Amino acid sequence: MTMIPKSPDRSALEQEQFLKILSREEALARFEAALFPRALPSDTRKLGAALGAVLAEDITAPIDVPPFDRSNVDGFAVRSADLAAAGEGAAIRLALNGETIHCGIAPRLQVAAGTATPIATGGPLPRGADAVVMVEHTQPAGPDAIEVRRAVSPGQFVSYAGSDIARGEALLRAGTVIGSREIGMLAACGIAEVNVTRKPRVAVISTGDELVQPGGALPPAAIYDTNGAIVAAAIDENGGEAVFLGAIADDEAKLEAAMRSALADADMLVLSGGTSKGAGDLSHRIIGRLGAPGIIAHGVALKPGKPLCLAVCDGKPVVILPGFPTSAMFTFHDMIVPVLRKLAGLPPRSDAKVSATVPVRIASELGRTEFVMVSLVEGKKGLIAYPSGKGSGAITSFAQADGFLRIDALADQMPAGTEAEVTLFTPHVRVPDLVIVGSHCTGLDLVTARLAHAGLTVRSIAVGSLGGLAAARRGECDVAPIHLFDDKTETYNLPYLAEGLELVSGWRRMQGIVYRKGDRRFEGIGAKEAVAAALADPACIMVNRNQGAGTRILIDRLLGGARPEGYWNQPRSHNAVAAAVAQHRADWGMTIAPVALTVGLGFIPLAEEHYDFALVTARKDRPAVRAFLDALGSDEVRAALKRAGFRPA
CB within 10 Å: which end of the chain, N or C, has fewer? Predict the structure, then answer.
């Protein structure tokens, strides 16, 4: 059994830590102190079944490898002293001994002075020989002799016994993950079975009345359970054996029964949700009844991840992750993976880090260490780190980010232009072939799909039209999708271009007022009349768009100086506007016709806007940019855009 060394500071493990906010470092230290040292259970496995397992103990070599001196080439085993005077003008004649040494054949005859023995690659060196001469460096001299015209040095083309692995040396260390190379080393030493650390069985439970398993029908106000699948996969990735037990509703008796059953069968329990202070958050209240010492930390000064709850119940770790996916996954990787890897006998994870410039200001909360997911792109002077900006409830934040940066608890922001250290999620930076920063449109996916099918990687970062132009001016992207109307010239996009940028026509999309079908305030009238009707009704709630979006500029022109109810609700996409109206959280907003059609909402056309691309001139000859422009102008993509409700320029 492997013993995990004791963590420092085993004190202060009292139950009173409930909802007392601890620093990340203190919470992790207390959690580890309550769990380690401990003996890790192990199993013996045959070599053929050991792939991917973790060695539970050091292994020393029981034999020398190779176990004898052997030839590295096909040739003749010789005495180097016999050939000391050999040269192009002075051939040395050697008599051949009456045997040929193949692999697996033990030599019978000694190589005496003036003789040589034919030997194959891998054959054991015979007594008396101290070198091998390659067959290419010899000439036949009758049926029983050879001539050699070059000298050899002692040990030439010979691998000595133990030159690869010496008997008694450390072959592999505990904690090594057994791969094909390790299996080769073990086999070379004749080791048929190894002692490996048993994978910890980790029970996974999602909690919440709102959860539906993927594949089921989604009723109103319900969401699919993403955390269960994500957490289970992350456990398997880090040495555990996940056992997903499904989602449990917010019923205290049912949840307690499920938690007790899980702890009886598993080595560890991980739940998601139910760790805040709401009336429906039951998990942390149950823990106190499941075993000592109970809760170790409940509340960690992290963003995301503040509600994290860490407990130990009769020696078994219990973790309650926050319910939001990004928050759950970040806290799992940052706080739980170190403990899980110890339980699995694995060494600490080694994270690669790079330096990158943050192009925009990132606000932070004093008193909490904040970890911000970022996407990396290549700028003029190195890597640029764009914050994801999607929040702790976003599934894609973790999946699409390249890594994260840290904002210290004593800082209330990270200023634009800061050179920051980014911890990568993968061993290497994945710089995309094409970088698109600006306004997003579903039509853009139809263009970039062709590039993806051709093997090119595309990164699209939605920051709005003005944000895209700023990125293009700084040289942080290849193209910036924009749809900005200029009041003075009454034209789209071209007046906004700066030096070094050129306009590439994209497509036209109809913008208009979206509302629920049957709403008499909007049925059968034009866009301007619809806005007037909405402003005249104090109970009519709008949904706006984010600042910097082209749609926002159009809305503000319609409203004049009016700021109706809902004006400050500012989602970042057309889809979010349509969802707010469809779900009765708002009565009207502005979006594009294809989105309204997809959701089944009423639509009042207002104006056809130009969705174009600001192209960075200095980058136009890059292969990925040329591929993008070719796709944009292709008949195939233009036809796809028309089918989706857009009008190609």
Answer: N
pLDDT for residue 282 is more than 80: no
Q: How many residues does the chain have?
A: 649
More confident residue, 18 or 630: 630
**CA-CA distance, 358 to 388, in Å (whole number)?**
12
- Token pair, residue 276, equals 């805040």
- Joined together, the tokens standing for residue 452 give 């993806």
How far apart CA 9 and CA 32 sit, in angstroms, is: 9
- The Cα 225–Cα 395 span in angstroms is 11
39-40 and 2-3 beta bridge pairing? antiparallel
Residue 80 token pair: 């180097």
How much of the chain, in percent, has pLDDT values that exceed 70?
Answer: 94
Question: Poorest-confidence range of 25-34, 53-62, 319-328, 509-518?
Answer: 319-328
pTM: 0.74
Secondary structure of residue 270 in the 3-state scheme: strand
Of 327 and 446, the one with more pLDDT: 446
Backbone angles phi, psi at 15, to 5 degrees: -65, -15
Give the gyration radius of the chain's Cα atoms. Answer: 35
Cβ contacts of 361 within 8 Å, gap of 6 or more = 413, 414, 415, 416
In the chain, % helix, strand, coil (3-state, to 5) comes to 25, 30, 45
Which pLDDT belongs to residue 393?
45
143-162: b (≥16 Cβ within 10 Å) or e:
eeebebeebbeeebbbbebb
**Distance (Å, whole) CA 273 – CA 248:** 10
Cα distance between residue 496 and residue 485, in whole Å:
9
Beta strands in 256-344, from DSSP E residues, in sequence order: 268-272, 293-298, 302-303, 309-313, 316-321
Phi then psi dihedrals of residue 527, to 5 deg: -65, -45
